[in-house]
């Protein structure tokens, strides 16, 4: 009775684990074949269990079966990585350990344990193909990258951001760039790099939200062969950006544990590859970007406070497009020329009403949205010479069935503007009530002192 219970427990354990289990006896008959192995190989259990695996191998066109090899040679085969097509035609990658089973020194069969590495291998290949180093190297026949001359704008807010960025280019301090999605954070980052003394060295960009923590750590800091299954000797982005600039985009998406390791690298100037023991000196200028308010993400626990202070030596705030006034038309005309050339069209201008519509649009996607709007509109135009309200392709409707009922009144303010007006009013009232005592005003408003100071700068609230 006890033996039956143990056997039933063992069966349940074998069916609950993620690894594939395949056990054959000395006559190659399959005794155990769990669900994970069946799923991995695309087979049905009833086609395998109690059948000769030698015959099944022939049917599956398996030329070098590790299970049959272990039965024949009585020697284990450990950590054998295989890539093959399963019975469903899907390419899979596995790491297998196959061992002989003996009782009283007598061979009774062979056991294979298989772990699916298909997804890991796929992500690794994607990294190599799609996440190739975004390094802009010197090429005499091509433009190196963005510079401050590429930034178009006459508004005071964008000029302030440019002037601050030009000062940042003259030193090696870390820079934290804050701006909504599509405002041009990478353009500013490249401009800083190519105006600095590091301009002839690598500029490498990595989006911290693009990869899971385990892969991002290896990408940033490198890996050592044998450090973990499938690892190879590979330098990380810090090593590859040595003497140059590393842009860490969307730093607020980096896992907190990885932020701690990044902080250590910034403080000490050394990296240690994943799985390694050697400290490698690096000289890298780090620029980090965030599309969320830095003070808010620190308060919310998305960004370590100590890392924030280490990155925030110089902070550059890129204003949203809706706050840049006539810059919207300057940029629209730039994109008009760009896509006229690309599409072989000759659209001369925009109508006054169209310009007004562009200036009153909220531009949630900022400059990127404006560029796509001009590109989309020109793509759909035929013989017209002027972009009008009828042809401008603004994303105003959000798939509402009755689009006309959702049209924005261009004379009205968007909701965020109204909220900002109310917020500014309450801040001024709190400061009046507390006689400009920022600590007390923050308490009245129910926010932190730093958050209040940030909002005062945002709304240009100045007190004696």
UniProtKB/TrEMBL annotation:
Keywords: ATP-binding, Nucleotide-binding, Transcription, Transcription regulation
Keyword Manganese recorded: no
One GO MF term: sequence-specific DNA binding
Record's signal peptide: none
GO BP annotation list: regulation of DNA-templated transcription
PAS domain segment(s): 6-52
Domain Sigma-54 factor interaction: start-end pairs: 151-379
InterPro entries in the record: AAA+_ATPase, AAA_lid_NorR, Homeodomain-like_sf, HTH_Fis, P-loop_NTPase, PAS, PAS-like_dom_sf, Sigma_54_int
Protein name from the UniProt record: PAS domain S-box protein
Species whose genome carries this gene: Romboutsia weinsteinii
């Amino acid at each position: 009775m006890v033996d039956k219970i143990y056997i039933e427990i063992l069966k349940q354990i074998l069916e609950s684990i993620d690894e594939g289990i395949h056990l054959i006896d000395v006559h190659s008959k399959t005794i155990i074949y769990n669900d994970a192995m069946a799923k991995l190989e695309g087979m049905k259990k009833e086609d395998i269990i109690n059948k000769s695996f030698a015959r099944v191998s022939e049917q599956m066109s398996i030329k070098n079966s590790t299970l049959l090899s272990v039965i024949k040679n009585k020697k284990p085969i450990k950590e054998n990585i295989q890539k093959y097509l399963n019975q469903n035609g899907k390419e899979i990658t596995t790491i297998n350990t196959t061992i002989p089973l003996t009782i009283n020194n007598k061979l009774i069969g062979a056991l294979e344990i298989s772990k699916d590495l298909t997804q890991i291998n796929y992500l690794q290949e994607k990294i190599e193909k799609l996440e190739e180093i975004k390094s802009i190297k010197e090429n005499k026949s091509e433009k190196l990258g963005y510079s401050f001359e590429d930034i178009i704008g006459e508004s005071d807010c964008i000029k302030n951001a440019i002037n601050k960025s030009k000062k940042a280019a003259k030193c090696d301090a870390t820079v934290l760039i804050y701006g909504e999605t599509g405002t041009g954070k990478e353009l500013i980052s490249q401009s800083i790099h190519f105006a600095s003394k590091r301009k002839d060295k690598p500029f490498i960009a990595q989006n911290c939200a693009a990869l899971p923590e385990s892969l991002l750590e290896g990408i940033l800091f490198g890996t050592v062969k044998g450090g973990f299954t499938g690892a190879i000797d590979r330098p990380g982005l810090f090593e590859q950006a040595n003497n140059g600039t590393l842009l860490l985009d969307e730093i607020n998406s980096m896992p907190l544990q990885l932020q701690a390791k990044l902080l250590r690298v910034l403080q000490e100037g050394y990296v240690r590859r994943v799985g390694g023991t050697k400290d490698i000196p690096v000289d890298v200028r780090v620029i980090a970007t965030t599309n969320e308010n830095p003070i808010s993400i620190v308060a919310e626990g998305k960004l370590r406070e100590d890392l924030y202070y280490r990155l925030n030596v110089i902070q550059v705030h890129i204003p949203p497009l809706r706050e840049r006034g006539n810059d919207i038309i300057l940029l629209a005309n730039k994109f008009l020329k760009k896509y006229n050339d690309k599409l072989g069209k000759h659209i001369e201008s925009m109508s006054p009403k169209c310009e007004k519509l562009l200036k009153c649009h909220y531009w949630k996607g900022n400059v990127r949205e404006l560029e796509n709007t001009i590109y989309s509109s020109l793509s759909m135009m035929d013989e017209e010479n002027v972009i009008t309200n009828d042809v401008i392709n603004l994303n105003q409707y959000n798939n509402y069935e009755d689009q006309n009922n959702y049209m924005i009144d261009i004379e009205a303010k968007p909701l965020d503007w109204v909220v900002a007006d109310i917020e500014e009013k309450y801040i001024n009232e709190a400061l009046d009530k507390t006689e400009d005592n920022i600590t007390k005003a923050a308490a009245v408003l129910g926010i932190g002192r730093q958050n209040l100071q940030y909002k005062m700068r945002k709304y240009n609230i100045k007190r004696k």
